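In the laboratory, one determines a bound structure by crystallizing the protein with its ligand and collecting diffraction data. In a computational setting the workflow is compressed into a single prediction: the sequence and the ligand go in, and a structural description comes out. We illustrate the idea with hexanedioic acid.
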Amino acid sequence: MALNASTLDQLAELLENCQLQAQDTLKITDSHPDMDWDDAYAVQDRILARKRARGARVVGYKAGLTSHAKMQQMGVTDPVFGFLVDEFVVAEGAEIQVSDLIHPKVEPEICFITRTELKGPGCHIGAVLAASDVVLPGIEVIDSRYRDFKFDLKSVVADNTSAARFVVGGRIASARDVDLRTLGVVLEKNGQAVALGAGAAVLGHPAAAVAMLVNHLGRRGQSLPAGSLVLSGGITEAVSVQAGDNITLRIQNLGSVSVRFV
Ligand code: 0L1
Ligand code: MG
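The predicted complex, in structure-token form:
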């Protein structure tokens, strides 16, 4: 690690305050160019610790930057991982206040709910499918705390991979009964299709993103608990939203889920 404990604490406080107060900041590697990967995840851990100290509950995890469309949009080459807490949950069809966010974007995702604990290293697609009860559609709302979404990968990891809100819904399916690679995905904004894709856009198979998450947790001495929700990553590029926008995600065989920005 390159940064000391007090610097990690200060960075966690800065980024969490930006999230809670909907204020942006410059990417933190501008002021801490030596920050390494362990530091980045340590800042993310400290943000989670701050939330837990206020009573937040972890409901799952997310993989980010898992599709080529998204990697190209952001100019990066590797997936990243973050946590999901209860304060990010939005009910299906509910409203999201844009004034609570900085510059929200939405991503269409296939979400997994696990039935048994998963542990890495060595986790693979088969283990993920065997351990997953169900899959369902989800809209992730990302909101980088960095000005104009200008960041590098370490800064994004520290910022809990831009996690802000998510809504899941639609029709639940058994993870083993659908071919997640060929499921068609349509993201609509105000009734117009604005992004199209298929499950295979996520690392060839969305379960591969979950396996990567589990192996990442394993390297850090953690496992993915039974009953976790996992957002496996945006299938298309992220789409900007503003007040007044209605977003609907339709996934073949999995129904639709909607959210409205006010
Ligand atoms: O979920 C995601 O793919 C977002 C990763 C973080 C980068 C961004 O803010 O777009
Ligand atoms: Mg995402």
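The first strand starts at residue 58 and ends at 64. Keep in mind that any predicted model is a hypothesis to be tested, not a measurement.
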